């Protein structure tokens, strides 16, 4: 179980580069199931969840070539075994993304039911309801969900609740279905639009990506394509907070500033100076300067384009340093305040009541031994440790490795004192990430 040793109090200076979005790479890799041809994906982040998805696809019969870094070639010429086994699904909930494409391509999908999850109950009922409406027969036995359909049929799907992977899963089912699928109340996240861009390159007919109404005209078959994954907006947001919280002067490069609107607005409101040096969607650059005096700011997580739940923990770390009391409302997941007790161990003053946390800021954080509980909670603790006086020890950084590529090297490159101490893996490493 690796640990991070972080010595706080150093303002970060320089340029930090953003990797490809994990949450876009995962559905795009699953989309390779939809064709016999090769799918080439550029800008794939080198993180643990991506390895897990490769294992998952390989276990079904996909050929995967990883000879070049950040590039993955996937060919699903034959899918010998359309099963997502529990051993893999239990480590990554996003494995349910293979459900839709598998039924669409092979007429059968067997996917282990995701179990409990560190950030609240995360059902996949909306994925199943949608597939049923498209004509699939869903059965459940021995911890597995089985979906069968000769050929899926287009349907009118109205999501009761906005779901990101649910929208992606059903989009991948709809592209090979017979006739038109109309999705309402669909997720508008940039990762959904990125998946649509790939599917369209593969020959799919889709309109309305990036809006809450998506129309898909099913086609008989799809072909190979090459696609570049969008920059990771959550990694970019995390480093913007790192610049602001340490009172540094950072350039966050290779990001897509247009995807960071809500985060940038809140950072400015808190008193950080933010400048968009380039708005390019692939090689965009944002400069952030923290002048050492931050103001209390309330946030409330929402679906895109609102403030992302995946940035809530990191932003809370920033609020511990802001003058005054801030309220943080978590509306997407019910149990996403696990970083709070660890931040409190570093000296933060935070009270949680239901889905609202009140942060009394301007706390002097002092280094402590803390435990990472999930992916974004880990990022929050790294940020806290960057301003705490003394050397903090972060345990269970495997959570971080699921979604952040070489974070310690990137932070060291801009002046942070952070070191990884390698130890033997722990069986607990098999828990969920977002
Ligand atoms: C995705 C992201 C995750 C992010 C989340 C919200 C990936 C791989 N993960 O997760 O990083 O935090 O979006 O932005 O892209 N729900 C149901 N039934 C369903 C599906 C979802 O009730 O069938 C509920 C969930 O419990 C949750 C809400 O809907 O309360 C949103 O979840 P969803 O958007 O599906 O999250 P994920 O797609 O799992």
Textual characterization of the structure:
With 434 residues, this protein is an alpha/beta fold. Helices cover 29% and strands 26% of the residues. The strands form seven sheets. Strands 24-25-1-26 form a four-stranded mixed beta sheet. A four-stranded mixed beta sheet has the order 2-15-17-16, covered by helices on one side. A four-stranded mixed beta sheet has the order 4-5-3-14. A hairpin with a 2-residue loop joins strand 22 and strand 23. Helix 5 runs parallel beside helix 6 and helix 6 packs parallel to helix 7. The longest helix has 13 residues, at 233-245. The structure holds uridine-diphosphate-N-acetylglucosamine.
Under CATH, the topology of the largest domain is which? Answer: UDP-n-acetylglucosamine1-carboxyvinyl-transferase, Chain
Structural shape: globular
- Total strands: 26
Task: Tell me which ligands are bound.
Answer: uridine-diphosphate-N-acetylglucosamine
Q: How many H/I helical runs? A: 14
C-alpha Rg, in Å?
A: 21 Å
What number is the mean pLDDT?
Answer: 94
Q: How many structurally independent domains? A: 2
**Beta-strand percentage range:** 25-35%
**Class inferred from helices and paired strands:** alpha/beta
Lateral strand order in the biggest sheet: 24-25-1-26
Main pleated sheet: 4 strands, mixed
Distance between the termini: 20 Å
Quick structural summary:
The protein contains 14 helices and 26 strands. The two termini are 20 Å apart.
């Amino acid at each position: 179980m690796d640990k991070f040793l972080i010595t706080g109090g150093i303002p970060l200076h320089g340029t930090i580069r953003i990797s490809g979005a994990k949450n876009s790479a995962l559905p795009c890799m699953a989309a390779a199931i939809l064709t016999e041809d090769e799918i080439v994906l550029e800008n794939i982040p080198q993180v643990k969840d991506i390895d897990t998805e490769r294992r998952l696809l390989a276990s079904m019969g996909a050929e995967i070539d990883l000879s070049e870094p950040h590039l993955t070639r996937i060919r699903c010429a034959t899918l010998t075994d359309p099963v997502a086994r529990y051993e893999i699904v239990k480590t990554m909930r996003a494995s349910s993304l293979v459900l839709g494409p598998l039924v669409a391509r092979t007429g059968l999908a067997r996917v282990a039911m995701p179990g409990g999850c560190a950030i609240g109950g995360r059902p996949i009922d909306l994925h199943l309801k949608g597939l049923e409406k498209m004509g699939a027969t869903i059965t459940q036995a021995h911890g597995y969900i089985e979906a069968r359909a000769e050929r899926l049929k287009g349907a009118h799907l109205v999501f009761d609740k906005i779901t990101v992977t649910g929208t992606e899963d059903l989009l991948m089912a709809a592209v090979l279905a017979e006739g038109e699928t109309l999705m309402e109340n669909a997720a508008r996240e940039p990762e959904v639009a990125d998946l649509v861009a790939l599917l369209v390159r593969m020959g799919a007919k889709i309109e309305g990506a990036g809006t809450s109404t998506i129309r898909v005209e099913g086609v008989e078959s799809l072909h190979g394509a090459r696609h570049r994954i969008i920059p990771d907006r959550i990694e970019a947001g995390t480093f913007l907070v790192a610049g602001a919280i340490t009172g540094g002067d950072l350039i966050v490069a290779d990001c897509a500033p247009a995807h960071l609107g809500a985060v940038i607005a809140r950072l400015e409101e808190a008193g950080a100076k933010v400048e968009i040096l380039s708005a390019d969607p692939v090689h965009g650059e944002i400069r952030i300067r923290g002048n050492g005096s931050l103001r209390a700011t309330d946030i409330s997580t929402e679906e895109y384009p609102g403030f992302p739940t995946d940035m809530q923990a990191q932003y809370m770390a920033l609020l511990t340093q802001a003058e005054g009391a801030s309220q943080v409302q978590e509306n997407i997941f019910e149990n996403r305040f696990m970083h709070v007790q660890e931040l409190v161990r570093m000296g933060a003053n935070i009270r949680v009541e239901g889905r609202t946390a009140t942060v009394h800021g301007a706390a002097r954080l002092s280094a402590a031994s803390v435990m990472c509980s999930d992916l974004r909670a880990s990022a929050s603790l790294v940020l806290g440790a960057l301003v705490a006086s003394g050397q903090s020890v972060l345990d269970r950084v495997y959570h971080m490795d699921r979604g952040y590529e070489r974070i310690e090297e990137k932070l060291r490159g801009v002046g942070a004192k952070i070191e990884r101490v390698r130890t033997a893996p722990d069986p607990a490493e098999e828990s969920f990430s977002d």
